Amino acid sequence: AYDMSKDQLLWLNDHLRILSGFYGLIRPLDSIKAYRLEMGTKMENARGKDLYDFWGSLVTHQLLRDGAPEVKSEVKGKAEGEAGAGALKAGDCIIDVASKEYSKVLDFKKLQEAGVDIYEMKFPGAAVHAKMARGAIVRYAAEQQVTDPEQLKGFRGAKGDWRFEGESTDKKTGFRVFTFQRSSSSSSSSGPAAKKRKKT
């Protein structure tokens, strides 16, 4: 983030919300202390046996209250003007790039009941590559000042090794799913190197 412009950082602060096991929901420019607490941690607390029980509906309520209404679903229409961050409302959308461990803390059904469209970004393959891709697509969104989920289809990854594969609708959740595939040449080039490192 150190090489991002001020405008890009401010865009991220308005549009990106980070799920945290310790803080719940934070913005990129929020001041926090260093911690190590994964969302999936089993931890007995007054509300249950883990952090999902602890946070309950609090994170979802906060997200509804503190969304970014200027990013619109193409189905409901694009944003007009320069609205600041505020409460999510019908026609807004959430682009989910979190891992399942973290997104599990959100009540997506409640978000959908509020009229919010959910877009899920999928990066099949090794977890290490998916993790890097999630960060890279957030950076891409900031660099492009994205105002419509459709713009994310142009994402190619930091090294140009990802491509948009297709769009679908998850019949169970109703999410619109954007699937990206990592090029086979990238996979094959990293495979032998990884094996070689394991032998040493």
From TrEMBL:
What Pfam families does the record tag this protein with?
A: H2O2_YaaD
Q: Which GO terms describe its cellular component?
A: cytosol
Q: Cite a single GO BP annotation.
A: response to hydroperoxide
Q: What InterPro entries does the record point to?
A: YaaA
Question: What ranges does the record give for the region Disordered, renumbered to this chain?
Answer: 181-200
The protein, known as: Uncharacterized protein
